[in-house]
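lol forgot to send this yesterday, sorry. C-alpha cells for the thing we talked abt
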C-alpha cells in the first residue's frame, strides 16, 4: 500500500490524460457500516467540522462548495476502519516473523498468477523496464504482493475510508495528529482528482486506508505518479494492467530507484568485532559503506563488498528463532518507500524472483 507523504503542490494530472477511477467491482454493501455487526453508519453530513473542512477546501482550491459539501455529507464513518488503524498490541509487535510473513506471499497460487500476469503483460513490463530502469520482476512482485495481480483490490469505499481516517483517526494512536493530517491531505487529493476528472467519488473501492487499483496507490501517489502507459487517453489503475505497470515503475524511479543496482546482498558477522547496535540504529536507511560495515563486524558477501553506494544492515525477526540479516542498498530502500517495511520489500523481491525463475523454467520445457 502506497503511504508516502507527498507534496501537494507538486501533484498534477498528466496533460491530456483523463482518469478512470471506477473499480472493477462495486464495494460490498456490508461495508456501509464497516462490518455487518456495526450499527447504522454515521454520515459526515451530521458532523459540522467535516462540512467546515469542505468549505475551507473549496475556498483554498477553488472547488465548487456545494458539490464538496454534498460529497463529504455522503461519506460514512466506518468503525471497522478506525479499529484497523489501531496500533498492534506490543506482544504482536514483538513476535515479528519473516518466515511466516514470507509464507503468506511466496505461494504456488501467487507464483502461478504471476506467471499468467507476466505472460499477458510481457510487452508493457519490458517497456517499463526500458523506460524506467525498474526490472520486470520487481514490478511483478509489487503487484503480486499488493493485490494478487488485481484479484484483491479492496472492498472498502474509498470516500468512506478516507473520511473516517481524516476526521476520526484513533486518538490513542501514538502518531494520531500526523496521521490525521496525512489522511486529510489524501482526502483532499482524492476529491480534487474526482472533480477534475468528472469521476463520481462515491464509486471507487480500495483498501481500508484508501489505496486503490492493482498497485494500491494512495490518491496523492495516483496524482503524482500514475501514467497513461498504453496511450489510450485515460489513466486506469483498476482495470488497465499496462497503466498499473508503468505507474509502479514511475513511482519507484521517482523514489530513487537506480537502474542496474542490486537490491541487497548477503551478510555474515565477525562476532569478535561486531558492533550490532550502531549498525542497526539507522534501521533501513542506507548509511554505511561496505568498508564501514566490515570495520564494525558485518561482512557483506563478495558482491556486496564491491558495492560503491551506502548500505543498511537490515534485521528481520523470526519469532523465537535467530533473526535474518541482509545488507540493503538504496534500491531496497526505494521499495520501502512503497510500503515502509523491510519485510514487505524482501517479500516483493522474493516473489518477483520466484515468478522469474518459474518463467525461465517454463521456457525450457
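and heres what i got for the seq, position by position
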Amino acid at each position: 500500500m502506497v503511504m508516502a507523504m507527498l507534496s501537494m503542490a507538486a501533484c498534477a494530472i498528466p496533460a491530456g490524460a483523463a482518469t478512470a477511477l471506477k473499480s472493477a467491482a462495486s464495494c460490498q454493501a456490508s461495508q456501509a457500516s464497516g462490518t455487518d455487526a456495526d450499527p447504522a453508519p454515521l454520515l459526515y453530513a451530521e458532523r459540522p467540522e467535516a462540512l467546515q473542512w469542505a468549505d475551507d477546501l473549496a475556498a483554498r482550491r477553488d472547488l465548487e462548495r456545494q458539490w464538496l459539501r454534498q460529497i463529504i455529507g455522503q461519506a460514512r464513518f466506518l468503525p471497522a476502519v478506525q479499529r484497523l488503524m489501531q496500533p498492534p498490541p506490543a506482544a504482536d509487535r514483538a513476535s515479528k516473523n519473516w518466515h511466516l510473513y514470507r509464507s503468506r506471499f511466496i505461494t504456488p497460487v501467487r507464483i502461478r498468477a504471476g506467471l499468467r500476469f507476466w505472460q499477458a503483460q510481457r510487452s508493457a513490463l519490458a517497456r517499463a523496464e526500458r523506460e524506467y530502469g525498474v526490472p520486470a520482476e520487481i514490478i511483478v512482485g509489487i503487484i503480486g504482493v499488493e493485490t494478487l495481480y488485481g484479484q484483491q483490490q479492496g472492498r472498502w469505499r474509498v470516500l468512506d475510508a478516507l473520511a473516517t481516517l481524516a476526521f476520526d483517526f484513533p486518538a490513542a494512536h501514538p502518531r494520531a495528529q500526523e496521521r490525521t493530517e496525512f489522511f486529510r491531505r489524501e482526502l483532499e487529493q482524492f476529491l480534487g482528482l474526482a472533480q477534475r476528472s468528472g469521476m463520481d467519488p462515491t464509486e471507487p473501492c480500495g483498501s481500508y486506508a484508501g489505496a486503490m487499483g492493482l498497485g494500491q496507490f494512495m490518491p496523492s501517489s495516483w496524482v503524482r505518479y500514475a501514467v497513461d502507459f498504453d496511450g489510450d487517453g485515460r489513466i486506469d489503475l483498476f482495470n488497465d494492467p499496462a497503466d498499473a505497470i508503468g505507474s509502479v515503475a514511475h513511482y519507484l524511479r521517482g523514489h530513487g530507484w537506480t537502474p542496474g543496482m542490486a537490491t541487497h546482498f548477503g551478510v555474515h558477522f565477525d562476532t569478535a568485532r561486531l558492533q550490532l547496535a550502531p549498525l542497526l540504529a539507522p534501521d533501513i536507511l542506507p548509511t554505511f559503506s561496505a568498508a564501514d560495515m566490515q570495520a564494525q563486524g558485518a561482512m557483506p558477501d563478495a558482491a556486496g563488498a564491491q558495492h560503491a553506494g551506502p548500505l543498511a544492515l537490515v534485521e528481520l525477526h523470526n519469532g523465537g528463532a535467530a533473526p535474518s540479516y541482509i545488507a540493503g542498498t538504496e534500491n531496497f530502500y526505494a521499495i520501502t518507500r512503497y510500503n515502509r517495511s523491510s519485510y514487505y520489500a524482501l517479500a516483493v523481491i522474493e516473489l518477483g524472483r520466484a515468478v522469474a525463475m518459474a518463467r525461465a523454467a517454463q521456457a525450457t520445457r
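The beta strands are 18-20, 156-157, 205-206, 234-236, 264-265, 267-269, 298-300, 312-318, 321-328. anyway ping me if u want another try
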